[in-house]
């Protein structure tokens, strides 16, 4: 059974198809079209679900399943920078360290055992993400209440949305996971993250997404990035058409050191963004060229269609004119035939010509419009209509005419009129035994 033909795309659907391919990097146009059709040509929903599929995260349009986010972290070229806590100094420092060591060991061991046991009693509420945007907004409010409103601009959206925007805008995404219970968190936030030079660098060069690991959304990202300690920062960018972690910064890092590390990571990976920009520009140029070619083709097609339409109209006009000419010829032929039949009928109805010796006869000489002369005798008692019928029956006479006498000059009433309903006889018209009458052609009139 043959597969049904695919419906032709509209201009708007074609534009969405090319935009979707540009945003997702999918080579197959059929796959792009299938995905868009599944989402009823809603490009935002299609792009979101496509990127979620690549990352392993749920769509923002659907309830999130219980699975981990997946960003490419398997690249062995990831730059990792870990800041260890400083070792104790002096006899007092080491003494305090060894005194507190058993207490810290016991505290964290019991805490881990308690958390492990609680998993069997009550599932970790952070494993269910029900309001990811709410988690982000809640963290931002908490951060501002604790550390002030002078900080890098937080991305107020989900992690997957931040990834999408970074990919679309070809920018670095800096991810910060906030460990509320870690001993270095406060110092990092106050002295490093809120430092003016750090704020300037992040706001001008990156998108900045942050969340607490105590929030379901932050915990989900934590499961994907697998941090070892806090504070934790990850630099993510579009690399080889995938959102990839290209740098990890862990531990308490100072502001100057953070700036240096971020600059190093961005400089080392800037070529990938430049390459991607060039590829997008090339795709855009290809798209523009294809669009121009399509427009030129459509313009040429419309011109050809217009020419064909005019040729068709000209053919129809000529055909109609030929038919009109043919109809006129047929009508003229019928008219001539009818006229000839009428001439013959009137010729047959003419009374016989009187004898020349008949004293009541009138000899009339007719001068026709073509300067020819016709002579015939009529009887005084005959109506002028007989004269008209005689002239009408002649082959050389015009279709319409009137008969004029010269002395006195007058038009003979040969046909019935309101003034002469019954045309007079030759005698009543005042004709003599010999007359010359003139036939005037009225056909043009």
TrEMBL record:
Matching InterPro entries: FAF1_2-like_UAS (IPR049483), Thioredoxin-like_sf (IPR036249), UAS (IPR006577), UBA-like_sf (IPR009060), UBA_8 (IPR054109), Ubiquitin-like_domsf (IPR029071), UBX_dom (IPR001012), UBX_domain-protein (IPR050730)
Protein name, per record: FAS-associated factor 2
Basic and acidic residues bias locations: 303-361
Domain of life: Eukaryota
Record organism: Cyanistes caeruleus (Eurasian blue tit)
Region spans: Disordered: 302-361
A GO biological process held by the record: ERAD pathway
SUPFAM superfamilies xrefs: Thioredoxin-like (SSF52833), UBA-like (SSF46934), Ubiquitin-like (SSF54236)
Location, primary (coarse class): cytoplasm
Subcellular location: Cytoplasm; Endoplasmic reticulum; Lipid droplet
One Gene Ontology cellular component annotation held by this UniProt entry: endoplasmic reticulum
Residue intervals of the UBX domain: 357-439
Molecular functions (GO terms): ubiquitin binding
Keywords (A to Z) from UniProt: Coiled coil, Cytoplasm, Endoplasmic reticulum, Lipid droplet
Entry keyword annotation includes Plastid: no
């Amino acid at each position: 059974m043959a597969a049904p033909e695919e419906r032709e795309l509209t201009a708007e659907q074609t534009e969405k198809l090319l935009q979707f391919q540009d945003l997702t990097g999918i080579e197959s146009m059929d796959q792009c079209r299938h995905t868009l059709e599944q989402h009823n040509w809603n490009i935002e929903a299609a792009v979101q679900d496509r990127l979620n599929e690549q990352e392993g995260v749920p769509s923002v349009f659907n309830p999130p399943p219980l699975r981990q986010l997946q960003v490419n972290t398997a690249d062995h070229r990831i730059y990792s920078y870990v800041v260890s806590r400083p070792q104790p100094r002096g006899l007092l420092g080491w003494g305090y360290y060894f005194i507190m060591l058993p207490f810290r060991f016991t505290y964290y061991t019991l805490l881990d055992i308690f958390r492990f046991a609680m998993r069997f009693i009550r599932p970790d509420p952070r494993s269910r993400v029900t309001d990811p945007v709410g988690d982000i907004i809640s963290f931002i409010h908490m951060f501002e209440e604790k550390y002030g409103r002078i900080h890098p601009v937080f991305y107020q959206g989900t992690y997957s949305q931040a990834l999408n925007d970074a990919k679309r805008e070809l920018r670095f995404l800096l991810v910060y996971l906030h460990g509320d219970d870690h001993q270095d968190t406060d110092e990092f936030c106050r002295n490093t993250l809120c430092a003016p030079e750090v704020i300037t660098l992040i706001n001008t060069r990156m998108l900045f997404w942050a969340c607490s690991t105590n929030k379901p959304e932050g915990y989900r990202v934590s499961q994907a990035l697998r941090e070892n300690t806090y504070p934790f920062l990850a630099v993510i960018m579009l690399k080889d058409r995938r959102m990839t972690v290209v740098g990890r910064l862990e531990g308490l890092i100072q502001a100057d050191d953070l700036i240096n590390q971020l600059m190093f990571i961005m400089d080392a990976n800037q070529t990938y963004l430049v390459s991607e920009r060039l590829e997008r520009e090339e795709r855009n140029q290809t798209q523009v060229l294809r669009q121009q070619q399509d427009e030129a083709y459509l313009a040429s097609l419309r011109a050809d269609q217009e020419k064909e339409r005019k040729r068709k109209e000209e053919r129809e006009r000529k055909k109609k004119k030929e038919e009109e000419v043919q109809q006129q010829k047929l009508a003229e032929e019928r008219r001539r035939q009818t006229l000839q039949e009428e001439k013959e009928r009137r010729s047959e109805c003419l009374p016989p010509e009187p004898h020349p010796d008949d004293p009541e006869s009138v000899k009339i000489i007719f001068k026709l419009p073509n300067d020819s002369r016709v002579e015939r005798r009529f009887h005084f008692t005959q109506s002028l209509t007989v004269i008209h019928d005689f002239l009408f029956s002649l082959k050389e006479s015009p279709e319409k005419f009137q008969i004029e006498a010269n002395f006195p000059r007058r038009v003979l009433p040969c046909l019935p009129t309101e003034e002469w309903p019954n045309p007079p006889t030759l005698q009543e018209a005042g004709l003599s035994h010999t007359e010359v009458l003139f036939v005037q052609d009225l056909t043009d009139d």
